[in-house]
Amino acid sequence: MTRQLSLVVFEMGEQQFGLPIDAVTEIIPLIAVSRVPNMPDDWLGVANVRGYVTPVVDYRVRVGGAKDLPPLSSPLIVIRQGRQQAALLVERIKQILTISDEHLDPSVIIHEGQLLMLIDPKTVLGRETPLS
């Protein structure tokens, strides 16, 4: 029996990424982010997301993009794993995609002729920060 995997697909430049939908709690517009000293380069800071102090990761920087001010239209993908929560700043949400797991490689798939990089939420949430 084949299982289905649903992904939130987002774009960063010409690259596409997919996050398992079961790790995504919500997608929200960019909100106020407070800088915190000594954070890693790809962390914008922290934001109050529904009463939780939430680290905000600039995924543009994580994949090699420039560290500049994000456009106000940039969405945040809020992910949760157990008691840990983070928000990923991305360029744009493309779609919700459901695929069968027989088409999955551990880290990439080909969808509509394009490479789609799969993101393991544990790698984002497991990253050590000054808040850990």
Q: What does this entry show, briefly?
A:
The protein has helices at about 60, 120-125; strands spanning about 5-10, 15-20, 25-30, 45-50, 50-60, 75-80, 85-90, 90-100, 110, 115-120. The protein is mostly beta strands and about 130 residues long.
Question: What does this protein look like?
Answer:
The chain is mainly beta and 132 residues long. The strands form two sheets. It has a five-stranded mixed β-sheet with strand order 8-1-2-10-9, with no helix packed on it. The chain has a five-stranded mixed β-sheet with strand order 3-6-7-5-4. The chain has helices spanning 59-62, 121-125; strands spanning 4-12, 15-20, 24-29, 43-49, 52-58, 75-81, 84-89, 92-100, 108-111, 114-118.
Features:
five-stranded mixed β-sheet; disordered C terminus; 132 residues; 7% helix; single chain; mainly beta; 2 helices; OB fold (Dihydrolipoamide Acetyltransferase, E2P)
